[in-house]
Amino acid sequence: MAEDSRILAGKRTTIYDIARLAETSASAVSSVLNGSWQKRRISKRLAAKITEIAEREGYSANAQASLLRRARSNIVGMIVPKYDNRYFGSIAEQFEAISRARGLFPVVTCTQREPALEVEAAKELISFQAECLIATGATDPDHLTALCEAAGVLSINLDLPGNAAVSVISDNYGGARELTALILDRCREIGYEGALHFVGGRPSDHNTAVRLRGFLDVHHARGIAVPEDHVLVPGYSADRAEQAMKSLSPRDAMGIFVNSTISLEGVVRWSQGLNDAARQRLRYGCFDYDPFAALLPSNVGMVQQNISKMLETAFDIMDTRRHPSEPILVPCVLRPC
């Protein structure tokens, strides 16, 4: 035990630390510390052991202990994968505003699409008795849900769905169909009736896969075959999107479905290397909205995700504790340019 105590020295003790030292689960520790252990039929011996470890490690003196004495913590947490575009930035900003309007204290942390950082962030929020964790664009939302369930914390998935908790996501399929149809119509106006290119995202990513399905279905409905090399999914990176586009000739890329404003930056860089005639023939649209990008001359439209509605729905779930089994789809708004 002395060795374990030294391991914990220098950092705030969490229920996961206590669970490891007591050789039990985090949910058992949470039950003992919040006084509900008898309802779970946890033995007095284990309860005493957990209490002794918590006191020895200074757990009762930290912020968690004071929160346990209150009926509610009023803390709501959110993890976001990136701050590098308006979409995630707007989600974080609106989440904070709605939380404060409801008398809640919001905590937002960026996890850089790193699974280990997501888990670390979830554990920290749980240790402070967050009443709800909204996992936005998480790489492994079901793992985070399992952590929350063990501690009795509500979890909600936003932007990307999971299987273990309620999910609130955009109607990516419907939005992709509308945008694809718009780009094809604008290409037809200049005499091009071939297949578009799909640029950006990852094949394993849920949103990319669903948007790509909508993209392909519209082509199929119009009798247009999409060659495999028209689907360029190098990831969410401006540099990778630009490199992928460099493999195409101007004649090959007349119409482009851009799968995020991050990828759009790479497409615009690539287009700067075209001659004037090629740039004038180029038509593209982007899934996600940026007011400045909407002014670009070759941009024919953008899909704007309804962030306000998504968050309102998430907070409604938080209030009602309803748990629909299927993801809740929030329609997008097509913004022709």
Report on the structure:
The protein is an alpha/beta fold. It folds into three domains: 2-68, 434 Repressor (Amino-terminal Domain) (Orthogonal Bundle); 75-165, Response regulator (Rossmann fold), CATH 3.40.50.2300; 172-304, Response regulator (Rossmann fold, 3-Layer(aba) Sandwich). The protein has helices at 2-8, 15-22, 26-33, 44-56, 63-68, 86-101, 115-127, 141-150, 172-189, 206-221, 238-245, 261-271, 276-281, 307-320, and strands spanning 75-80, 105-110, 132-136, 154-158, 167-170, 197-199, 231-232, 255-258, 283-287, 299-304, 328-330, 333-336. The protein has a six-stranded parallel sheet with strand order 2-1-3-4-5-11, sandwiched between helices. Strands 7-6-8-9-10-12 form a six-stranded mixed sheet, with helices on both faces. Helix 6 links the parallel strand 1 (75-80) and strand 2. Helix 2 crosses helix 3 (26-33). It is elongated, with a radius of gyration of 24 Å. The chain starts with a helix and ends with a strand. The model is unreliable at 61-70 (pLDDT under 50).
Termini Cα gap: 66 Å
Secondary-structure content class = alpha/beta
Strand order of the largest sheet: 2-1-3-4-5-11
SS summary, helix count = 14
Strand content bin: 15-25%
Report the average pLDDT across residues: 88
**What's the CATH C level of the largest domain?**
Alpha Beta
Order of helices and strands: HHHHHEHEHEHEEHEHEHEHHEEHEE
**What is the level-2 CATH architecture name of the largest domain?**
3-Layer(aba) Sandwich
Low-pLDDT parts are: 61-70
Helix proportion range = 40-55%
Rg over C-alpha atoms, rounded to the nearest angstrom? 24 Å
**Count of discrete domains:** 3
- According to CATH, the homologous superfamily of the largest domain is Response regulator
CATH topology type of the largest domain:
Rossmann fold
Shape: elongated
Profile the largest sheet: 6 strands, parallel
